[in-house]
Write a structure and sequence with these properties.
The complex is a heterodimer of chains A (357) and B (200). In chain A, 65% of the residues lie in helices and 0% in strands. Chain A is mainly alpha-helical. Chain B is an all-alpha fold. The chains are: A mainly alpha (357), B mainly alpha (200).
């Protein structure tokens, strides 16, 4: 131990910082990947129970009865990694192999600015909110390229649908976040959380309720989840943009980003509207009580809730028709956000609510 | 030192990608090279600590404009051979335009700089300096008039684009959504009472 400490002290400070940051990045990545595995299990279990089924209940660790089903995602990953990767003969080979990576990289890079707790964030940059918007808008390239490079009609139709849908809902999401940034007065995600200090009612959702609804709906559409999953629409276009992908290319590179993005948007929802790592009892209970303290614990609970909402929505609503999706995005959500931004400006001008001081 | 190395590395990729845009045979590859160009330009902005401009560049050009470009280019069925036919005929015009651009760049980069001292890099910025707030402050005070003009021009473009699609085409089958929603079961289904059939 002594020796190790001495060795550590001998490393130049720049290199020390580099090592620490790299370890932190690896830590966050591994957590995200394990969370994705657990989320796929949770999805199958939750939807199973909602449809009066049991869901996966066979694969287990060390033969423990209580863990039945928990090892299912790991078994699936092993199965998918061992499958053959088929590259269609008439495809554009380089782009076909590059497309999944283009989906994966932004999905993981966005985690850099997420404020996990009052102390821990990988990169505390000023324009954090813009960074999130910019990177989430990049994922669409992978989808379009996957559709185009496959040289298949189904994949191409899926890519077209997905591109139009993502562009449409990005605008609504961006406008909803403009409202958040007006309330917080900062683009830094940590500052946005800190500006919501003081119990449930001073969180953003109370004054920005319409924007919160718009954010949730458009985040469902942005992540191509049900009821907006026409990009895959298995009843019409088989599996959409990833119909030609198999094995590891499909698993690690389309399923993983999709679920990582899902976790990300359900983590950002509390950050923007539900006080991130702040406690809902702040100001209502004595400060020194555990449940009145801010911490990662609260963010975790809120994220789990919104993830559950994602699964709940998938089990509840039938898929939208494509023209209805476009109509909802352009003619309903965008006007709502525009009107509410105007209302917010008036509130701020009259110094009502969170703008009182 | 590190910044200089990064600058040259990203500049080299930028120039290579720009060449790729005009040299690629496939228009989709050209669009992708252009995306790479924008990315590298954004990184160059990051190197001079203009993080707001860099991120907005990625958000607007890469995230929105180029997606629509790609969308359109992929839908087109372009015959490359036919496009190449007029090359020698159009070459003189192309050369003239290229010369004009070179002269303009020369003017901006060299003639305008006569008499201005080149500082060689930006001064280090104070600790809690926010690029975003600074741009906002300048944009909404000093340049508010040009900013509003630009906004109006964009608004006109939006209205024009919508107006183009507002024409009525004959024979188009459209749904009347309020009508669909207001349908009641009794309008569609008739429940008939009739005696059950008996065995003879």
């Amino acid at each position: 131990m002594e020796k190790l400490l001495a060795m550590w002290a001998a490393i130049p400070p720049d290199l020390q910082a580099l090592i620490i940051v790299t370890l932190q990045i690896v830590g966050v990545m591994m957590t995200v990947i394990v969370a994705v595995a657990m989320l796929t299990l949770a999805e199958r279990k939750v939807i199973g129970y909602m449809q009066l089924r049991i869901g996966p209940n066979r694969v287990t660790f060390f033969g423990l009865r209580i863990l039945r089903g928990v090892a299912q995602p790991f078994a699936d990953v092993v199965k998918l990694l061992l499958k053959e990767i088929i590259v269609p003969g008439a495809s554009s080979r380089l782009l076909f192999l590059l497309a999944p990576l283009i989906v994966l990289v932004p999905a993981l890079a966005t985690w850099a600015v997420v404020p996990f707790s009052p102390e821990f964030v990988l990169a505390d940059i000023n324009a954090g909110l813009l960074y999130v918007l910019a990177l989430t808008s990049l994922g669409v390239y992978g989808v379009i390229l996957a559709g185009w490079a496959s040289n298949s009609k189904y994949a191409f139709l899926g890519a077209m649908r997905s591109a139009a849908q993502m562009v449409a809902y990005e605008i609504a999401m961006g406008f909803a976040l403009v409202g958040v940034l007006m309330a917080a007065g900062s683009l830094n995600l940590g500052e946005i959380v800190r500006s919501q200090q003081g119990g449930v009612l001073s969180w953003n959702w109370f004054w920005l309720f319409p924007l919160f609804i718009v954010y949730v709906v458009s985040s469902l559409a942005e992540t191509n989840r049900a009821p907006f999953d026409v990009a895959e629409g298995e009843s019409e276009i088989v599996a959409g943009f990833h119909v030609e992908y198999s094995g590891a290319a499909f698993a690690a590179l389309f399923a993983l980003p999709e679920y990582a993005n899902m976790i990300l948007v359900s983590l950002l929802c509390p950050v923007f509207f539900f006080g991130g790592w702040l406690s809902p009892f702040q100001g209502y209970l004595p400060e020194d009580w555990f449940i009145a303290q801010p911490g990662f614990f609260w963010l975790f609970l809120k994220t789990c809730f919104f993830l559950f909402v994602f699964l709940w929505v998938r089990a509840t609503f039938p898929r939208y028709r494509y023209d209805q999706i476009m109509r909802l995005g352009w003619k309903v959500l965008i006007p709502i956000t525009l009107i509410w931004i105007g209302v917010e400006a008036v509130l701020a001008w009259l110094r009502i609510g969170p703008w009182a001081n | 030192m590190l910044v200089t190395i990064l600058f040259y590395a990203f500049s080299a990729v930028l120039i290579g990608a720009a060449l790729g845009v005009i040299l690629a045979r496939n228009p989709v590859h050209s669009v992708l090279f252009l995306v790479l160009c924008f990315f590298n330009a954004a990184v160059l902005w990051l190197l001079i600590e203009a993080e707001f401009l860099a991120i907005v560049m990625v958000l607007v050009y890469v995230g929105a404009v180029m997606v629509l470009f790609l969308f359109v280019v992929m839908m087109l069925d372009i015959n490359i051979e036919k496009l190449r036919e007029g090359f020698t005929r159009n070459a003189p015009l192309g050369i003239v335009i290229a010369l004009i651009v070179i002269v303009e760049l020369y003017y901006v980069l060299w003639v305008r700089r006569l008499g201005i001292e080149v500082t060689g890099g930006t001064a280090p910025l104070p600790e809690n300096y926010s690029n975003t707030a600074e741009i906002g402050a300048v944009l909404y005070t000093e340049y508010v008039y040009p900013f509003q003009l630009a906004a109006v021009v964009l608004l006109i473009a939006i209205i024009a684009a919508i107006a183009l699609t507002m024409r009525k085409r004959p024979g188009l089958k459209l749904q009347d959504i309020p009508h669909q929603v207001s349908v009641r079961a009794r309008d569609r289904v008739r429940i008939v009472q009739m005696p059950t059939e008996r065995d003879p």
